[in-house]
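Lab channel / #folding
Pinned by the channel admin:
"Please post every new chain as: sequence first, then the structure tokens as a reply. Keep commentary short and put observations after the output so the thread stays searchable."

First post following the new format, from NK:
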Amino acid sequence: MVTEFLMARQKAFPAGFCLLLALACAPIIAANAAVIASIDRVKVELNESFTLKVLVDTAIDVAPNASALDTDFYVGSRSQLSNTTIVNGQITRSRTWTYVLMAKRAGNLVIPSIIIGAEHSEPIDITILPQSKTAPGEADIFVAADVDFEQSYVQAQILYTVKVYRAVATRQPRLSEPEIKGVDVLIQGAGEERSYEALLNGKSYNVVERIYALFPQQSGEIRIEPARFEARVLRDGRITGRKVFQSQPIVINIKPIPPPPSEFPRAAWLPAKAVTLSEEWSREPDAMPAGEPITRHVQVTALGQLSTQIPLIDLSVPGSIKVYPDKPELQVRAVDGGILATRTDQYAMIGIVPGDVELPEIQLPWWDISAGEWKVATLPGRTMVILPSADAPMPQATPQVDASASDSEAATIVVHSDFWRRVSEVLAGIWVLTMLVWWWSGKPAPKTRVVEEPPIHKQQSRLLKQARKAALGGDAATVKATLLKWGRLQWPDNAPRSIGEIADRVTAPLDAQLRQLSRGSYGPSASGEWQGDALAKALRSFAVRKEVAEITIVDTLPPLMP
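Reply from TO:
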């Protein structure tokens, strides 16, 4: 079994690299080369391959010493890549070695240091899980799907993984997006599609893996329909007709939000796998002159949550410091544990009164979805030292006043002036009249109710629900108007101006349905024919393309049709 893996994957180093190395006429400095090792996954099933990359930040002709890998891993194919970059006349070179590995046993293993010349990489921890029991016997093609939680809570992340195993060649393959029924769910792609090798029951498979992060918005039940893989199979030199392969359906129970902990009765709901607090200062606050501003950045990092769900930190400071908050910075990226979200709040702080100021500890309660309990992330307090300002005026001496003269003057004013006494009498009468009117009415002043704007993700969920309802009703105008509102929330700094722009920023199948809607409304035929049920179905399962975040609109002319 292992011999088949090694023979199938073993490859020689490309001979063309010798020519590239000869063309790169630069001195070879092996002693100062930084060696960086990385793997594509930190959790791998037994008999699944993974990729180890070793990067050296300079041109080098010394091959890595990777013999230590043979202790716990089978080493398959090996390759290398040289890269040369010229920026403003500065030439930088690097070289990357790639190894395809497969673990010999399950457990918590360590990828040892890779030695190149006089330098070496840092060890890497990797978890090798037991082989999955979802493999259906000796099938040439099958689809497996699973979730990390069969029971979860509202707005808590659920990772849905789909794997397509192929032991034979296929043509025109297509893996459909997940179809979810039940309560409303936000779907986020949790990383790029992966491809690797696996050995099951002595048979070698090529595996394609996709991971989705699901965020249910209501309590109830989620039903994930079977994942569908369609392809034409190449067997014995002949191509069969198009065949469909499906996984088993999955049902998830979503529980309501539990009550907050007793010590934090007003705690915001923040379900995650891990939450950390950190801070950065524009300069050290241990010697800050009064009147000069200093900037404090407080960052909340949540694994398994969206950035819009992270609450605002209640930054309480003494009255001797003025605080001016700025707009928060929100970021989201996919990691091995799902979605890693960060919220960075920026505060400009100005000390007013010289002296030592104690900043209290910051506490953020959150719900651990793995342990099923409340936990608290903390940021230790610290002391700010406010120094007297160099431009502050010197304090003036308090003038001495003759007490007897003051008393005499005050007495003279009271005796000889009736104006202020009359003003006081009038104000007292108005106050008495006001109290009588209030007592007679018997009704307290109405309280002003402050309506808080719901979080952005809830607004987006409501808009998508309205768009689905309008699509089922065949109301194209409402669908377009609602989706444009959703787009302004999704991309506040680069809002789309038409349905066609939204189609360019989302994944299948929603992009195709939106283009059909746009063509039906404004195209040459203008037939108005578009499939409302298909569009409503596509609005339930789609993701935002990552490259959209980097798009900058340079066209200053608005579109002909919004």
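NK: DSSP finds nine helices and 32 strands in the chain.
TO: also worth noting, The first helix runs from residue 2 to 9.
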